[in-house]
Amino acid sequence: MTASPALGTPTTATPDLLRSVFRRHAAGVAVITAAHGSRPVGFTATSLTSVSAEPPMISFGIGTGASSWPAVSEAEHVGVHILGEHQRDLAATFARSGADRFGAPTSWHEGPEGVPVLDGALAWLVCRVVARVPAGDHRLVLAEVVTGDPAGEGRPLLYHQGRFNALRD
């Protein structure tokens, strides 16, 4: 097979290659939350996937070195929040290492199963964790939907080329 002249030279698989390729992949932005004792934890995720309709199940990836991993590794339930364009700052806060993610101006409340639920999301779910599958330096978390609310208003927030972006028509 001959390479097209318009294509660059293929490179060997490395973490940088994977990151470079996926910077070109626009992804929806979610925040995953969990309770860790009396302390809420959370992180921004672009790896959220719908896995199954029957039973309703989702998945997301989390690095084992992430500050939220200890909580997610033990949590029975997690919150999944689909962010809107109006929540760029919230996405950045939950993506930033060392940030006070649940301090002002973050607005949240304790939801079903004690899971922290973020106010103002386009939609949210509370899910029961059913598996944590090793995947390199990450874990793929599979979780069954318990309850949720799809009624938020607005347009989805996207992540592309290392930035949070608005959906354009």
TrEMBL record:
One MF annotation (Gene Ontology) recorded for this entry: riboflavin reductase (NADPH) activity
Q: State the Gene Ontology BP annotations.
A: pyrimidine nucleobase catabolic process
SUPFAM superfamilies recorded: FMN-binding split barrel
- Occurrences of domain Flavin reductase like (ranges): 22-166
What name does UniProt use for this protein?
Flavin reductase
Under the heading Pfam families, the entry gives: Flavin_Reduct
Q: Which domain of life is it from?
A: Bacteria
- UniProt keywords, alphabetically: Oxidoreductase
